[in-house]
Design a protein that fits this description.
Layout lengths: L1 H21 L10 H4 L9 E8 L14 E8 L15 E2 L14 E2 L2 E3 L4 E8 L2 E9 L3 E2 L3 E6 L4 E8 L2 E4 L1
Protein backbone atom coordinates (compact mmCIF):
# COMPACT_ATOMS: atom_id res chain seq x y z
CA UNK A 1 0.00 0.00 0.00
CA UNK A 2 2.77 2.42 0.94
CA UNK A 3 4.62 1.73 -2.33
CA UNK A 4 1.43 2.38 -4.31
CA UNK A 5 0.91 5.75 -2.59
CA UNK A 6 4.57 6.70 -3.14
CA UNK A 7 4.41 5.61 -6.78
CA UNK A 8 1.26 7.62 -7.48
CA UNK A 9 2.77 10.74 -5.89
CA UNK A 10 5.97 10.35 -7.87
CA UNK A 11 4.01 9.91 -11.10
CA UNK A 12 1.88 12.96 -10.28
CA UNK A 13 5.02 15.00 -9.61
CA UNK A 14 6.61 13.86 -12.87
CA UNK A 15 3.40 14.76 -14.71
CA UNK A 16 3.49 18.23 -13.18
CA UNK A 17 7.13 18.67 -14.22
CA UNK A 18 6.28 17.64 -17.79
CA UNK A 19 3.39 20.13 -17.83
CA UNK A 20 5.65 22.94 -16.61
CA UNK A 21 8.38 22.09 -19.15
CA UNK A 22 5.84 22.25 -22.00
CA UNK A 23 4.47 25.70 -21.02
CA UNK A 24 5.96 28.81 -22.71
CA UNK A 25 8.04 31.16 -20.57
CA UNK A 26 5.99 33.64 -18.54
CA UNK A 27 2.72 31.67 -18.72
CA UNK A 28 0.77 30.73 -15.57
CA UNK A 29 0.57 27.04 -14.62
CA UNK A 30 -2.22 25.78 -12.37
CA UNK A 31 -1.95 22.71 -10.14
CA UNK A 32 -3.61 19.64 -11.69
CA UNK A 33 -6.86 18.75 -9.89
CA UNK A 34 -5.77 15.16 -9.19
CA UNK A 35 -2.88 16.48 -7.02
CA UNK A 36 -5.24 18.42 -4.73
CA UNK A 37 -6.72 15.18 -3.38
CA UNK A 38 -3.29 13.72 -2.63
CA UNK A 39 -1.94 16.66 -0.63
CA UNK A 40 -1.82 15.70 3.06
CA UNK A 41 -3.92 17.81 5.43
CA UNK A 42 -2.21 20.65 7.28
CA UNK A 43 -1.00 19.66 10.77
CA UNK A 44 -3.39 20.54 13.57
CA UNK A 45 -2.17 23.10 16.12
CA UNK A 46 -0.74 22.02 19.44
CA UNK A 47 -2.24 23.18 22.73
CA UNK A 48 0.36 24.66 25.07
CA UNK A 49 0.33 26.56 28.32
CA UNK A 50 1.51 30.11 27.60
CA UNK A 51 2.01 33.23 29.73
CA UNK A 52 -0.45 36.02 28.96
CA UNK A 53 -0.95 39.51 30.36
CA UNK A 54 -3.46 39.49 33.24
CA UNK A 55 -4.30 43.16 32.50
CA UNK A 56 -3.05 46.01 30.34
CA UNK A 57 0.63 46.71 31.05
CA UNK A 58 2.44 49.96 30.19
CA UNK A 59 5.64 50.17 28.15
CA UNK A 60 8.80 49.95 30.26
CA UNK A 61 7.07 48.23 33.20
CA UNK A 62 8.74 45.44 35.14
CA UNK A 63 6.54 42.33 35.17
CA UNK A 64 5.36 40.98 38.53
CA UNK A 65 3.63 37.70 39.35
CA UNK A 66 0.29 39.58 39.34
CA UNK A 67 0.88 40.65 35.70
CA UNK A 68 1.25 37.08 34.37
CA UNK A 69 -1.44 34.41 33.92
CA UNK A 70 -0.95 31.03 32.28
CA UNK A 71 -3.60 29.85 29.81
CA UNK A 72 -3.95 26.98 27.37
CA UNK A 73 -3.59 28.22 23.81
CA UNK A 74 -3.65 26.40 20.49
CA UNK A 75 -0.51 27.28 18.60
CA UNK A 76 -0.47 27.35 14.80
CA UNK A 77 1.74 25.03 12.82
CA UNK A 78 5.38 25.96 12.46
CA UNK A 79 8.04 26.56 15.09
CA UNK A 80 6.54 27.16 18.52
CA UNK A 81 6.85 30.62 20.00
CA UNK A 82 9.39 30.60 22.82
CA UNK A 83 7.34 31.88 25.75
CA UNK A 84 8.50 29.60 28.57
CA UNK A 85 11.21 31.91 29.86
CA UNK A 86 8.93 34.89 30.59
CA UNK A 87 8.94 35.47 34.34
CA UNK A 88 8.55 38.23 36.91
CA UNK A 89 11.34 40.77 36.47
CA UNK A 90 11.11 40.91 32.66
CA UNK A 91 10.60 44.37 31.07
CA UNK A 92 7.91 45.35 28.56
CA UNK A 93 9.18 47.04 25.39
CA UNK A 94 5.74 48.25 24.31
CA UNK A 95 2.21 48.49 25.70
CA UNK A 96 0.77 45.01 26.30
CA UNK A 97 -2.99 44.44 26.11
CA UNK A 98 -4.88 42.20 28.56
CA UNK A 99 -4.87 38.57 27.36
CA UNK A 100 -1.94 39.08 24.94
CA UNK A 101 0.70 36.33 24.88
CA UNK A 102 3.91 37.54 26.55
CA UNK A 103 6.80 36.80 24.18
CA UNK A 104 9.81 38.42 22.61
CA UNK A 105 10.17 41.14 21.32
CA UNK A 106 7.25 42.59 23.32
CA UNK A 107 8.98 41.62 26.56
CA UNK A 108 12.66 41.11 27.27
CA UNK A 109 14.75 39.88 30.17
CA UNK A 110 16.13 42.53 32.52
CA UNK A 111 19.51 44.08 31.73
CA UNK A 112 22.16 42.82 34.14
CA UNK A 113 24.86 44.98 32.56
CA UNK A 114 24.18 48.70 32.10
CA UNK A 115 25.83 50.88 29.45
CA UNK A 116 28.74 53.08 30.63
CA UNK A 117 28.93 51.39 34.02
CA UNK A 118 31.81 49.44 35.47
CA UNK A 119 31.70 45.67 35.04
CA UNK A 120 33.85 42.79 36.19
CA UNK A 121 35.44 40.99 33.22
CA UNK A 122 36.55 37.42 33.92
CA UNK A 123 38.54 34.92 31.91
CA UNK A 124 38.72 31.30 33.08
CA UNK A 125 40.98 28.53 31.77
CA UNK A 126 41.02 25.42 33.92
CA UNK A 127 42.22 26.43 37.40
CA UNK A 128 43.31 29.91 36.30
CA UNK A 129 40.89 32.82 36.71
CA UNK A 130 41.73 36.38 35.70
CA UNK A 131 39.42 39.24 36.73
CA UNK A 132 39.69 42.81 35.42
CA UNK A 133 37.47 45.92 35.42
CA UNK A 134 36.01 47.54 32.33
CA UNK A 135 33.15 49.73 31.10
CA UNK A 136 30.19 48.15 29.27
CA UNK A 137 29.33 49.81 25.96
CA UNK A 138 25.60 48.92 26.05
CA UNK A 139 22.85 47.35 28.14
CA UNK A 140 22.74 43.56 28.00
CA UNK A 141 20.71 40.72 29.51
CA UNK A 142 22.08 37.45 30.84
CA UNK A 143 23.45 35.22 28.10
CA UNK A 144 23.79 38.02 25.54
CA UNK A 145 27.03 39.34 24.07
CA UNK A 146 28.38 42.74 25.04
CA UNK A 147 31.52 44.76 24.24
CA UNK A 148 33.56 46.02 27.19
CA UNK A 149 36.12 48.84 27.02
CA UNK A 150 39.08 47.94 29.23
CA UNK A 151 41.22 50.48 31.15
CA UNK A 152 43.95 50.07 28.51
CA UNK A 153 41.48 51.25 25.85
CA UNK A 154 41.23 47.82 24.26
CA UNK A 155 37.74 46.46 23.55
CA UNK A 156 36.79 42.86 24.28
CA UNK A 157 33.59 40.92 23.63
CA UNK A 158 32.10 38.66 26.25
CA UNK A 159 28.92 37.01 27.50
CA UNK A 160 26.90 38.39 30.42
CA UNK A 161 26.94 35.80 33.23
CA UNK A 162 25.54 37.83 36.13
CA UNK A 163 24.85 41.28 37.47
CA UNK A 164 27.79 43.44 36.38
CA UNK A 165 29.81 40.35 35.28
CA UNK A 166 31.02 39.48 31.78
CA UNK A 167 32.94 36.32 30.86
CA UNK A 168 35.41 36.29 27.94
CA UNK A 169 35.22 33.05 25.96
Amino acid sequence: MVDTVKSSRILALLGTLVLIAAVPAGAQVGQPTHLATQTPPAPVGVTRRVPVAAHQIARGATLTADDIEFRDSTMRSGPPADTNDVAPGWITRRMINAGEILRSPAVEPPSLVIANQSVEVEWVDGNIKLTLRGIATRNAAIGSRVTVRMESGRRVDGTVVGTGRVRID
